Amino acid sequence: MISKPFTARAHTNIALIKYWGKKDKQLILPMNSSLSLTLDRFYTDTEVYFDSDLKQDLFYLNDEKKDAAKVAHFMDLVRSKSELKAFAHIKSINHVPTTAGLASSASAYAALALAASRAAGMQLSLPELSRLARRGSGSASRSIYGGFVEWQRGHDDLSSFAVPIEENTDWNICMIAVVIDKARKKISSRVGMQRVVETSPFYPAWIKSAEHDLTAIKKAIKERNLKKVGEITEENAMKMHALNMSASPHFSYFESATIEVMHLVELLRSEGICCYYTLDAGPNVKILCSVEDSEEILRRLAVKFDKKQLLIAHPGPGVQLINKK
Predict the structure, then answer these.
(1) Residue 112 to residue 49: CA distance in whole angstroms
(2) Domain boundaries, the chain
(3) Is-same-fold flag (6-170; 173-313)?
(4) What region holds the Diphosphomevalonate decarboxylase-like N-terminal domain (predicted)?
């Protein structure tokens, strides 16, 4: 028996209010709620079909066979929900640098959640898809939706999922990704956040602060206040990275070029351009700005960075099934 193949596309999201720390590692329940912007530029396409003749799940990433252990654990959840016994053939194409702080795992597991569940014969609701995607990667729960999305921390498996804040936003904003390093991170997000939770003396203050930031940024989004959204985004990111530097042993994802970009953004602001930076678990910087200002920001960045390192993205859509060409 070979099931009908399904292919799903999901886009990455960049957290404006960060999730950094789990209260349940198995269920991937976050310590704090978070909020993100789904981007159109970076995405993952994943095809899944089940084959009763397979002895194990097969996983291909960018046409290269990979160890399927982590993906197989996720597929076990799909099999459990669908009561399907067969193993699956999984083929993913990543249109985003992997493991470099550009949220490739978010798009990867959101696409896998939709493609695998449909191939297994299930028609999950969007909240159910968000919960399923969360089990692969926490941030994947947010990539189920487009635009601005909140991942509600909840208190158990059923109550922790993402909800759209403004899915089809008409706000004329964009995000410039400065790709400083595509290499694999020395410290993964999972290892980094766990170290922070266990050792940073400032972690309890982060939880309070993040929840306050979440309330404030939702108000600023509703009011279309880019300055306020940017300020909250930038400060929240810096608080997250300060946690890393206060952990034991301390660590940082910054590189010298990371600091250069941050300084340039601050200089541009002093010249009257409304732009703000944010960083996830990696050295790459994302700059939030208006579409109108993006050309000048790119021009200034191009003085120090190759054009291939400068990628502009706009608000993107939620996960969807696609037809293979």
Answers:
(1) 11
(2) 6-170, 173-313
(3) no
(4) 10-162
Which residue in 274, 200, 285 sits closest to 230, CA to CA? Answer: 274
Q: How far apart are alpha carbons 295 and 288 in whole angstroms? A: 13
Read off the pTM. Answer: 0.95
Q: For residue 185, what pLDDT band results from cuts at 50, 70 and 90? A: confident
Exposure string of 4-15, with b = 16+ CB inside 10 Å and e = fewer, is ebbbbbbbbbbb
How many Å apart are CA 293 and CA 291, to the nearest integer? 6
| Mean pLDDT (whole number) for 82-105 | 84
- Phi first, then psi, for residue 279 (nearest 5°) are -140, 140
CATH class of 6-170: alpha beta
pLDDT reading at 103 higher than 90: no
Q: Which helix (H) or strand (E) holds 46?
A: strand 34-51
The answer to whether 264 and 276 have CB atoms below 8 angstroms apart is no
DSSP 188: -
Q: What is the mean pLDDT of the chain?
A: 95
pLDDT of residue 8: 98
Indicate the length of the chain as a whole number.
325
pLDDT digits (tens, 9 = 90+) for 249-273: 999 999 999 999 999 999 999 999 9
* Mean pLDDT value across residues 224-253: 98
State both tokens at 141: 């729960």
Kindly write down the DSSP assignment for every residue of 98-161, as one continuous string. Answer: TTSSS-HHHHHHHHHHHHHHHHTT----HHHHHHHHHTT-GGGGGGGS-SEEEEE--SSTTT-E
The token pair at 156 is 């158990």
Label residue 101 left, alpha or beta by phi (over 0 means left) and psi (-120 to 50 means alpha): left
